[in-house]
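User: Can you predict the 3D structure for this chain?
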Amino acid sequence: MKNKKRLIKHFNFVDPNWVGISSNILKLSKKDLSKEEGYLLDGIKLAWLASVGRDYLYKKTASGILATVAIIILTLMGYGLITQLDNSFVKSVDAKTVTTAVEELVQATMSAVFQ
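Assistant: Here is the predicted structure, written as structure tokens:
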């Protein structure tokens, strides 16, 4: 907590020194800070994102979007697979089609036997 308060107290918004400040700054909470210190911490986080953390923000946003797209695609593929399985196992069969197929098989077998 002392480091948090020291950072807030000595931070220079005009010429910020980002050396030693990593993306962990975004995880700092405003717990045990006064209202003004909380606002300053939010300002420091925003300044970090606007200058140094831009790549971090882009990576986080891109990874979130890719994860969402992957989940949607996998869901759609799973749904498509399930509906295909239902259609491939359950097919309506016409009795006329079965009779014709059996007759063709018998005729082919008989003609092979008689030759």
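Residues 2-52 form one domain. The radius of gyration is 34 Å.
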